[in-house]
């Protein structure tokens, strides 16, 4: 409790002034405040075993921020993975058994149009959040744009604004129970898990998603299971050669799958 400069200051003070005359005089020592003296005196009057005072170490999960106890993550029955870009927000709702419950995206046409206005972000994002299903955790992709390229600063500002807005709107219950339910997962962590990285750049996961859709029909134990209606709807949408700019949907699905697989193998 009293280390470094605090302990040195106590020694220097006593050398110059002699023993402390009363408890209040302890606060004359530089860096020693009321809170510090209260903690120290209580520990002297009520000594406890060191093992009792030591806080239990949280078993952390490396790829998730903020730090969440592993047990809470493992007990989650479902998660919603969200990925957002310059004009879209996509999400995938997966249950613990790797079954896809919902998978879609919404376009936000006013993103990055004209001058930045916080009210526009609220007006565009709130209706999207209202459509997102309930889950134990919401996992947001952490953008990986380098700040060294100043030309990308408006994009980074936009992505961080959307991220902050989603944290606020999805995490409304935090004020009630103090439990974090909105988490961040690095884009590069997902890329490395699925071997989509080329150097420091993440490549498209569309081909992998097409394979996952196909395996859901042809394999007895697929990596991820889709409802039949979803397979029919999206197999043509993601077929090779079709340019429909659904990268956010691909990334949202892969992020949710990576969450469960990394948690299982971490």
UniProtKB/TrEMBL annotation:
GO biological process, one term: transcription elongation by mitochondrial RNA polymerase
Ranges in coiled-coil conformation: none
GO cellular component, one term: mitochondrial nucleoid
TM stretches of this protein: none
Gene Ontology MF, one: DNA polymerase processivity factor activity
Record SUPFAM superfamilies: RuvA domain 2-like
Keyword GTP-binding: no
InterPro entries: RNaseH_sf, RuvA_2-like, TEFM
Keyword tags: Elongation factor, Mitochondrion, Mitochondrion nucleoid, Protein biosynthesis, Transcription, Transcription regulation, Transit peptide
Location(s), subcellular: Mitochondrion matrix, Mitochondrion nucleoid
Function: Transcription elongation factor which increases mitochondrial RNA polymerase processivity. Regulates transcription of the mitochondrial genome, including genes important for the oxidative phosphorylation machinery.
Family: Belongs to the TEFM family.
Identification of the protein by name: Transcription elongation factor, mitochondrial
Organism: Acipenser ruthenus
Species classification: Eukaryota, Metazoa, Chordata, Craniata, Vertebrata
């Amino acid at each position: 409790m009293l280390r470094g400069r605090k302990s040195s200051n106590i020694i220097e003070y006593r050398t110059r002034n002699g023993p402390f005359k009363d408890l209040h005089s302890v606060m004359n020592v530089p860096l020693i405040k009321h809170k510090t003296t209260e903690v120290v005196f209580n520990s002297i009057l009520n000594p406890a075993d060191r093992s009792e005072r030591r806080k239990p170490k949280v078993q952390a999960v490396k790829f998730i921020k903020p730090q969440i106890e592993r047990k809470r993550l493992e007990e989650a029955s479902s998660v919603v993975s969200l990925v957002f870009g310059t004009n879209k927000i996509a999400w995938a709702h997966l249950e613990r058994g790797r079954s896809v419950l919902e998978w879609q995206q919404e376009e936000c046409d006013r993103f990055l149009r004209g001058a930045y206005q916080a009210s526009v972000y609220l007006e565009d994002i709130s209706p999207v959040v209202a459509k997102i299903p309930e889950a134990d955790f919401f996992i947001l992709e952490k953008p990986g744009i380098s700040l060294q390229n100043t030309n990308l600063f408006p994009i980074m500002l936009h992505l961080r604004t959307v991220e902050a807005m989603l944290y606020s709107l999805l995490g409304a219950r935090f004020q009630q129970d103090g439990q974090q339910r909105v988490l961040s997962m690095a884009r590069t962590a997902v890329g490395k898990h699925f071997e989509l990285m080329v150097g420091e750049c993440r490549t498209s996961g569309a081909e992998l998603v097409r394979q996952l859709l196909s395996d859901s029909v042809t394999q007895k134990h697929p990596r991820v299971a889709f409802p039949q209606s979803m397979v029919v709807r999206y197999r043509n949408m993601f077929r090779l050669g079709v340019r429909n700019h659904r990268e956010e949907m691909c990334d949202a699905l892969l992020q949710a799958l990576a969450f469960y697989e990394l948690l299982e193998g971490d």
